[in-house]
Each structure stands twice: as structure tokens, then as C-alpha cells.
Design a protein that fits this description.
Elements: E1 5-6, E2 21-23, E3 26-31, H1 36-57, E4 65-70, E5 82-86, H2 92-96, H3 98-107, H4 113-127, H5 142-152, H6 158-163, H7 174-197, H8 199-208, H9 219-231, H10 239-244, H11 252-262
Parallel strand pairs: 3-4, 4-5
Antiparallel strand pairs: 1-2, 2-3
Helix pairs in contact: 1-3, 1-4, 3-4, 4-7, 5-7, 7-8, 7-9, 7-11
The protein binds zinc ion.
Amino acid sequence: MGLIQLTAYVAGAQHPGPTPISSGHFVIDNRSNATPGELNAFLKVLNSAWDGVAHRLGKEPPSTIQVVLEEGRGVTNSRNGLLTFYRANDLRDYFVAPPHELVHLTTGYVSDHHIEEGLAVWIAHALEPLETRLFPQFAQSLDAWVTLYLENGTLLPLRRALRDPLDFDINGSVGDTTAWQTYTEMGSFLAWMADARGMDAVWKLWKRGTDERPPTIADDDEHEWLEAVKAKRLSPKPCIVALGRPVASSSEGRLRLYCALVDLRSPSPRPEEECAAVPTVMHSPLSSQGLSGTSGWLLSGS
Ligand SMILES: [Zn+2]
């Protein structure tokens, strides 16, 4: 990593604009109050993620990437070839989301969204397997989550997961839980596919999807993937334990809903945690579990 270069961004002789800071593959347009030390650390994270994604994916991200760092909170995203991060996200997205977003920039997000997100989830997980803050796996591996779904009978068949919209809702909902679950399942499935069938098979599947049409996943592949996960004999943490520590308390209600829907062994909520904002469509015996807080927890966007 080279030294940070400070480059004056001159919009006009008398009206100099913000000062982009660049290193390696990234140019940060810093619109936040980040210190030079923070920016330097962030550039190192970004460049390390670039190398990791290129290696794991077998394709290089764009050689120069513009990054905007905003001060407030928001959804990290890679829209229009621009990466946007938010400094106030308790550093969660700021330091763990780059690999995910770089995968999107590398593929161009032209395939089916479930496949695109699965690719990003898998690569980010492969690069940071122990990262407990990383969405969507948090404190345990993608395969551990799939094992948990299998043990509870709550696994979404891939055919259904590919059909359902990725309907995130920061206040929590059944669709929001399905979207989170789909991310974990697709990440686990694509990791298996790369291992068992090779990257060529992954890219073939990716090419068969479009942004309006998911590809078909062969039943044999789904079956073999699940058998491979079972053969690992993992002991997943209970959902409430896995999601309990690493996440902001403001998102607790949303995450408890995740657990109520996928882990039927989750403990009952304390009475004071129940509130009126309970979704009406629930599948779990713990359907009285309320959304006790609005979420400040942010998702990696597309
Ligand atoms: Zn994404």
C-alpha cells in the first residue's frame, strides 16, 4: 500500500471542492468528518478487499473505484459504479462491507438478484469467515445457518428462495426475514457449487439469470449441496445467541423476528419486549414476539 496521496480537487480556481484521497485502486471523496488516520485505515481495508475479491472471484474489480464517504447513516451501496459508505454506521458497514460491494461492481449486477447477492455474500464470507458483524451470517458461518434451518425444518427450498423478492424492511417483517435467509442460503449454495462443480459452473449459472428472471437450479444440485452441509456435522449456535451480541440494540426486535421464524427453539421474549407492531402473518409458535425497536441496523445494498 502506498502513501496516501492528497490531491486537490479543483472545481474552480476560487472555489476548491472537497479533497479526494487516493491509494491503490480507490479514490475517496470524503464528505465526512473522518480523520486522516481513519481514511488511511479505510483505504487499506478497501485495497485488501480488492485483492481478495479478485483472487476469490477469478475476475478483477474495476482498476480505479470512486468511493464516497458520507458522515451520517445509510445503506452501503455500489450504485452507478460508485461505492458509498456511511461513517456513522458504527463502523459495521464501513469496515466489513467492501468485499460484498466490490463483487457487485465486478459483476455489474446484471444477473438475477438472488444469484448476485449470493455471490457477494459467499465471497465476503470466504474473505472474512470469522467476522461476526458481517451481514448476513453474523456470528456463524453460512453453512451453520443452513444447518440450523435444516434442524428446524425452516429451510427455504431454493426454487422458492429464487422466486421470492428480496424484500428488506428495517422494521422487520416476514419478507425481510425471507430475504435475510435467502442471502445465507444462496451464499452457502454458491460456495458449495464452486467447490464441487468449479467456478465455471458458477459463472454458467450466473449467465443464465437476468435481472428479471432467476435461473433454474437443478434439484440434484440442491440435494447434493444440502447433503454436503449435513456431512459437516456442524453445531449451529441458537439463532438468538448468534444474533444477540454483535448487533446494535436498536435492531434487536428485527433480529428477534428472524429468530422466531427460523429457529423454533428460540426462547420466548420477555413480556416488556412485546409491542403492537407485530406482523400479522407469522409461521412460528413465537408469533407473539414483537418488534421492540426500530432498526438502526443497515444492510448491504445492491
Ligand atoms: Zn448486495
